[in-house]
Design a protein that fits this description.
The protein is of the alpha+beta class. The protein contains 4 helices and 4 strands, in the order αβββαααβ. Strand 1 and strand 2 form a beta hairpin.
């Protein structure tokens, strides 16, 4: 294992053991739930959305180390960003974990989120890492519909999802 792989593993373990923004957000304006039944990951994302800006975000739930670390790092990455910025970040992150550098994306452009770049080699783990992001997206959409990795919803691009 390279020094970079070791560092990535340490970052993931740290966020899994001491997740940032963990817990219920009192007075949340949006809430969404996500489930990955194959791994047992369950997450709830709480948002305070004000004028299309995520003013505050928290999450709670249980699951594997990757899922919890992904939720922790996601919340830190999207706080104070607009919906449009979050959507761009989601697309770049999703491409990194599903396609890698095939589409020309340099993982280092995602900052700390690059620690998840190796997940694309493990298709079942892609669901663990992407669950928080899809749950966030559902919260931003405001539909209140739960997200599941087994409904096909997670592979469907936003423009093709049912309203």
């Amino acid at each position: 294992m390279s020094e970079l792989d070791d560092l990535y593993q340490e970052v993931i373990i740290d966020h899994s053991r001491r997740p940032r923004n963990f817990g219920i957000l009192e007075g949340a304006t949006r809430k969404a739930e996500g489930d990955n039944p194959l791994c047992g990951d369950q997450i709830t994302v709480y948002l305070n959305l004000e004028h299309d800006v995520i003013r505050d975000i928290r999450f709670e739930g249980s699951g594997c180390a990757l899922s919890k670390a992904a939720a922790s790092m996601m919340t830190a990455s999207v706080k104070l960003k607009t919906r449009a910025e979050v959507e761009q970040l989601f697309e770049r992150f999703h491409n990194m974990i599903t396609k890698g550098q095939e589409d020309g994306l340099d993982p280092s452009t995602l900052g700390k989120l690059a620690v998840f770049s190796g997940v694309r080699k493990f298709p079942l783990r892609v669901k663990c890492v992407s669950l928080p992001w899809h749950t966030l997206r559902a919260g931003l959409d405001g539909t209140g519909q739960p997200v599941s990795t087994e409904q096909g919803f997670m592979e469907t691009p936003k423009e093709e999802r049912p309203a």
